[in-house]
């Protein structure tokens, strides 16, 4: 019985998305330079010094997200992901950077990023949409989107910065959408991502300027790109698909629907490409119900939002899909045994 349970745990672990860990190592270096003890932060988030010090070891995406959050808190830097993306050497992206840089045009580079980003990070899926104003959407796979803030902000700004460097043009995206809420630090983001920046959006997305897909890249090299594409294809084929649990997919579908009052089983089922009946049945197979996931997600988000003293309780109520603050207060007592104000004061 114990061996069967162990095998099952190992199999589940092998399905979890991994990352190359370069972002964690950037954050770890920042922690060390700040004189903050690194090992306790790593231990608390499921990582070790050996994993950080070995650039060839992949780590779990969920551990990277947890570590970035812990590092941001320890450094008192709520903009950690953004500041890391602003200063790191783009070449540290490795193979992904070079296959993008050697592409003929920006549109081709974004296509390459969309196809091969999983080599670097299996949890963030890039979807490129061609058009006069090309779009790059970032979708989380295998891990809950609502658990992350620093990694996604790093990814979005790094992609914009890389596009500027590779094209040799200083430009601002036409629009940038980020699905989590950020009441502080928005002005700094807008200065580098443009005035079309929206937090609390329905999706994580970058809309590039009109005609930008045709911009020729400064280091375009057709022969080198052909070689690198072959290497990328080989690397991609060696990575197994990791879709994660249905629960995570449901949570990621629910999150952007909450403020609009559309977080309902039939709406979520449609977004996931199945009938409501199929969704209910498949959740039951995992020992879950839709309402259970919904309530637990709301409770988790409520606790996170209440950590920000500058966010009004009425806004938190709206973000969670409550029409009245009083309804949110009742729900908060049901989840935690405390009202929102009591929970905020108890931290």
- Identify the quaternary structure here: single chain
N-to-C SSE string, H for helix and E for strand: HEHHHEHHHHEEHEHEEHHHHHHHH
Mean pLDDT over the full residue set? 89
Largest β-sheet summary: 5 strands, mixed
Q: How do the strands line up in the largest sheet?
A: 3-4-7-5-6
CATH architecture classification name of the largest domain: Alpha-Beta Complex
Global shape: globular
Derived structural class: alpha+beta
Number of strands: 7
* CATH topology value of the largest domain: H-NOX domain
CATH class term of the largest domain? Alpha Beta
Q: Residue ranges: pLDDT <50 for 5 or more in a row?
A: 1-14
Radius of gyration: 21 Å
Distance between the termini: 42 Å
Total domains: 2
Strand content: 5-15%
Amount of helix: 55-70%
Number of helices: 18
Describe the fold and architecture.
The protein has helices at 2-14, 22-33, 38-44, 49-53, 61-75, 80-87, 95-101, 106-120, 150-167, 186-193, 222-237, 246-254, 265-271, 276-285, 290-306, 313-319, 325-336, 340-345; strands spanning 18-19, 59-60, 124-129, 135-140, 175-178, 197-199, 204-207. It is of the alpha+beta class. It folds into 2 domains: 2-234, H-NOX domain (Alpha-Beta Complex); 246-345, Homeodomain-like (Arc Repressor Mutant, subunit A). α8 (106-120) packs parallel to α11 (222-237). Residues 1-14 have low confidence and may be disordered. InterPro entries: AraC-type_N, Homeodomain-like_sf, HTH_AraC. Pfam families: Arabinose_bd (PF12625), HTH_18 (PF12833). This is HTH araC/xylS-type domain-containing protein. GO terms for molecular function: DNA-binding transcription factor activity; transcription cis-regulatory region binding.
């Amino acid at each position: 019985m114990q061996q069967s349970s162990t095998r099952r745990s190992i199999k589940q672990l092998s399905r979890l998305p991994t990352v190359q860990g370069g972002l964690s190592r950037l954050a770890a270096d920042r922690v060390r330079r700040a004189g903050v003890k690194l090992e306790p932060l790593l231990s608390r988030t499921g990582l070790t010094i050996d994993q950080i010090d070995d650039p060839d070891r992949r780590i779990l995406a969920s551990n990277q997200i947890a570590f970035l959050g812990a590092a941001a808190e320890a450094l008192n830097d709520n903009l950690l992901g953004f500041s890391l993306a602003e200063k790191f050497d783009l070449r540290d992206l490795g193979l992904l950077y070079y296959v993008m840089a050697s592409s003929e045009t920006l549109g081709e580079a974004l296509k390459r990023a969309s196809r091969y980003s999983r080599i670097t990070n299996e949890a963030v899926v890039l979807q490129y949409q061609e058009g006069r104003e090309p779009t790059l959407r970032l979708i989380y796979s295998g891990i809950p989107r609502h658990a992350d803030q620093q990694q996604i902000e790093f990814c979005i700004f790094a992609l914009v910065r890389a596009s500027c460097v590779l094209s040799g043009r200083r430009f601002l995206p036409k629009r940038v959408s980020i699905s989590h809420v950020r009441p502080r630090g928005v002005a700094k983001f807008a200065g580098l991502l443009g005035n079309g920046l929206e937090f609390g959006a329905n999706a994580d997305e970058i809309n590039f300027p009109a005609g930008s897909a045709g911009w020729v890249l400064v280091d375009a090299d057709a022969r080198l790109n052909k070689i690198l594409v072959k290497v990328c294809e080989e690397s991609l084929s060696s990575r197994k698909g990791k879709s994660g649990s249905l629960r995570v997919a449901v949570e990621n579908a629910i999150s952007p629907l909450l403020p609009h009052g559309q977080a309902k089983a039939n709406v979520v089922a449609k977004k996931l490409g199945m009938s409501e009946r199929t969704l209910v049945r498949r959740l039951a197979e995992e020992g879950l119900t839709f309402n259970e996931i919904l309530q637990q997600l709301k409770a988790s988000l409520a606790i996170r939002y209440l950590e920000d003293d500058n966010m009004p309780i009425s806004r938190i109520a709206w973000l969670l899909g409550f029409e009245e603050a009083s309804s949110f207060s009742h729900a908060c007592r049901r989840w935690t045994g405390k009202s929102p104000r009591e929970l905020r004061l108890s931290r």
